[in-house]
Amino acid sequence: GDNILGLVRYLASSSLLADSSEYRHGKMVFFDVIGLQAVAYPARVGILINYLLASLAVLYLASAGLAYLREVLRAVGVLLVAWLGAVVTVAGAALLITLVGRSMSWYTERTVLVGLYAAPALAVILLVLVLAKRRYCGLAGQTGQRAAECSFDAALMLWTALLLWLNTKGICSAFLPALWVGFSLAARPVLFEAAASVGVSPGRFSVFLAILLPPYLITLYSLWNLYEMFLPIMGRSGTQIVPDVVMAIVTIASVIVLSSYPVCLVYLMPSAKRTLLSLTAVFLLTFGLVCAGFFFPYGNDSIRPTPKRLYMQHISRRLHDASGAVVHRDSGVWVNGFDYSGVSHLAGSIPALNDSMRAPCLPAPFCGYPWFLPVNSLVRKSWYLPAPDVSPSPPLSMLLVDKEQLLSNTWRLTFEVSGPHHISLYVREPEGATLVGWSLGEGAPPPPQDNYSQARFVFYSYGTYTAPWRFWLDMQIQVTDPEKPMVEVAVATHYLFGPSRRTPQLSSLLKQLPDWTFSSDWVSTYDLWAF
User: Where are the transmembrane segments (predicted)?
Assistant: First the structure.
C-alpha cells in the first residue's frame, strides 16, 4: 500500500501531466533491453516497421524461385515435426516425473529445468534433423549446404508468418519476431555466402552470432522474466494444475525460439553423434537424480525463499434445514496446500496429515467449507483434522428480516448479517427456484462461476463497524411447494486478527511445521440455512 501511494503521488505531481500534448501517441510499443534501457515508440510506427521487415522477408523468399520454395516448405515440415516430437517427449517425461511423486524438483534449484526439459527437447529436435539430413530438401551432395540454407529459411518463413499474424491482430509483442526477422536477414549472407567453397570459418560464424546478438539478448531477458513469473506461481497454482507439465511447455517454447536458426548448422556438421550423446547423458543423469529425490522442492533461503505454502483454518460448521433445525454439526482444522503436491511432504512432520484424513464434500455450497476466496476449483484436495468446537467473537448473526411477495411466483427475501470484518456469502438455488435479482449488483445476478461449486460467491468486508449488512434476494419459484426451500444461503466468517484468530490446536500444528513452510492460519465458521 505504501509503495502504491508513493507511486500515485509521484505520477500526480509529474510535470508530464501538466502538458501531455507531446505524448499523444496513443498505443505504444515498449520494452527494455536487459533492464538497462527502455525502448518505446508509437504502435503505428511499429506496425509500419513490422510490415516493412515482413515485406523484405517475403521478397527475399519469393526471389529464390518456386523450386527452392518447395524445398523450404519441406524444411518447414521437418521443423514442425521436430518441435512436435520435442513437445511429446518432454511432456511425457514431465508426466512420468509427476507419477513417481517427484514434481516441482526445480522449484528451488532452477537449473534442474535445463537438464530435465531443455536438454531432451534440443536432443529430439537435432535427432529429427539428423534423420532427415540425407533426404531433406532433395539433398544430393555431401556437404549439407543446401539443407542448412533451407532450414534457415524455413525458420525465417515461420518467424515472418508469426510477425504478420501478430501485426494484423494489433499485438504490440510483434516487436520480438520483427527483431528475429530483421537481424536474420542481415546474418544469413554472412553465414552462407562462401560456405559452399570454404565452409563456415570460425570468424564468419562469430560475425553471424554477433549480428544475432540483439534479438538473443532481448529474447533471453524476456524468457528470464517469464520464468521469474511462472515459476513462483507454480507454488500457489492449486492442486489441479500439473506444474511439471506447465514448466516443461515453457522450457520447450524457450528451446524452440532460441534454437530456431542455429539448428540449421547440424547439416554442416560431419556428425552430430557427440552432441546428441552429451544431451542424452545430461538428461538421464538429471532424471535419475530427480527420481532419487536428490532435489527437494522447498527451501527457507531468506534471499530467495521457496517455501511450501499452505493455509490452515480451525472451523466450526452447522447445517440447518428449512425448519431451522441443525442437521449436521462438526469442527476441525481444515488444511489446504497451495501446490500440486498437497501436503505429501508434511507427512513426516505431522503424521495425521495422510490420505485417510482427506476432507469430505458435504451436500452444501462449496462442499460446506469456509473459502476465503472462490478458488475451490483449483484446490480440490484438502485435509480435515478433528478438533474441538470454536466460539469466536464477535459471533455471526444471520436474520431473515422480511419476506415480500412481488409477483405471484416471485418473492423478495431481505437478510441482515453481522459478524467479523471478513465474511463470505454463498447463495445456491434449489431445484425449481431461480435467483432473478439482488441488491448486490444491477440486473440479473451472474451465473455461478463453475459447475463444481454451483453457488454464487460474495465477499464482504468492512473497516469500522456501523450497522449490520443488509441485502435482499429476489427468488422466482416455478412450482409452489411449501416443503421445498426457495434458496440456500451459507455464511462463512473469517477471524483474521484479534484474540479469536488462533486457537491452541492451530498453535500446536504450527509448531510442528518445518522451517521450509509458510502457513496462513485463522479461525472460521460455516453456517448454512434453507429459507
Answer: 48-69, 76-100, 112-132, 207-227, 247-269, 276-298
pTM for the model: 0.84
Cα gap 311→285, rounded to integer Å: 36
Q: Does residue 318 sit in helix, strand or coil?
A: strand
- Spacing of C-alpha 200 from chain mean position: 42
Cα gap 110→12, rounded to integer Å: 40
* Cα angle value 216/220/221 (rounded, 5°): 120
pLDDT of residue 432: 85
Whether the CA torsion 221, 225, 228, 230 is positive or negative: it is negative
* Locus of grid cell 522450457: 251
Residue 8 phi/psi, 5-degree rounding, is -65, -40
Lowest mean pLDDT among 97-111, 230-244, 345-359: 345-359
Q: How far is CA 323 from the centre of its chain?
A: 45
CA 466 to chain centre: 40
State how far the Cα of 50 lies from the Cα of 33, in Å rounded to an integer. 19
Beta strands in 21-106 (DSSP E): 28-33, 37-42
pLDDT in tens, 269-318: 777 889 999 999 999 999 999 999 899 999 988 888 899 999 999 999 99
Per-residue pLDDT at 391: 92
3-state SS, residue 11: helix
| Digit-coded pLDDT (tens) for 28-53 | 888 888 888 888 888 888 899 999 99
pLDDT-derived band at 197, boundaries 50, 70, 90: low
- The three grid cell numbers given for residue 326, joined into one nine-digit string: 441443525
Q: What is each CA distance from 205 to 130, 190, 215, 457, in whole angstroms? A: 21, 8, 16, 60
Distance CA 86, CA 124 (A): 5
Provide the edge-to-edge strand list for the sheet that holds 488-495: 382-386, 326-337, 308-320, 517-530, 488-495, 422-428, 456-461
Q: Is the dihedral of CA 191, 197, 202, 203 positive or negative?
A: negative
Grid coordinates representing 379 are 484446490
Chain-centroid distance of CA 368 in Å reads 27
Task: Tell me: pLDDT of 453 over 70.
Answer: no
The grid cell for 76 is 518447414
**183 vs 163: CA distance, rounded Å:** 14
Helix then strand then coil, in percent of the chain rounded to 5, is 45, 20, 35
Q: Are 319 and 364 in contact (CB under 8 A)?
A: yes
DSSP string over 252-284: HHHHHHHHTTGGGGGGGSS--HHHHHHHHHHHH
308/184 Cα distance (integer angstroms): 44
- Euclidean distance between CA atoms 162 and 76, whole angstroms: 13
Please provide the DSSP assignment of 117-129 as one string.
IIHHHHHHHHHHH
Phi, psi for 396 (deg, rounded to 5): -75, 135
Radius of gyration of the chain (CA): 31
**Three-state SS for 493?**
strand
Cis peptide before 514 (omega within 30 of 0): no
